[in-house]
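This part of the workshop introduces the protein records we will be handling. The structure tokens are whole numbers drawn from a learned vocabulary of backbone shapes. The record below serves as our worked example for the rest of this section.

===
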Amino acid sequence: MLKEIGIFEEYDRLINALRGRGALLITGVEKPNPMTIGWATLGVIWGKPVMTVLVRPSRHSFFLINSHEEFVVAVPPADMTKQLAFCGTRSGRDHDKFTECSFTKENGVKVKVPHIAECPLHYECRIIHKNNVDAGRLDPAIPMQYYPNGDLHTIYYGEVMGVFKREN
């Protein structure tokens, strides 16, 4: 059963996942696609709770997130390392990751993007702003390290509509 919790109640769990094995960005509705991410922020912008995620235009998730203007960030359990590796190295253009990872789709509560039932924590977000990373405005070391091929991210600012924790 899912229980709605406070926006920042499981902040440490989210950050530990991002700094460690990663979290899953879920985009799309008809054919949803989970993609492993290691970069995200959670805070307050414009008086709203906001999560930012970064997606490169070359990713299938880029098309999906722009098509639906919503996303979910799922924090996986510790034993999901193989699925995280798969979702971080395979494209949703070529693979149905929900099927191939044996994920169970579960309806979102406040957004149309689904949850992964096997994940204990989900942040449901509605996009309120997006902008492209401008390499010319970054510290010069960052583009050299993270953008050697120029595939710059788009940053999505999602108002957190709800945070849902699975209770046993």
Q: What stands out?
A: Residues 1 and 161 are 18 Å apart (CA to CA). The chain has a mean pLDDT of 96. Helices lie at 11-19, 60-68, 81-89, 97-100, 141-146. The radius of gyration is 15 Å.
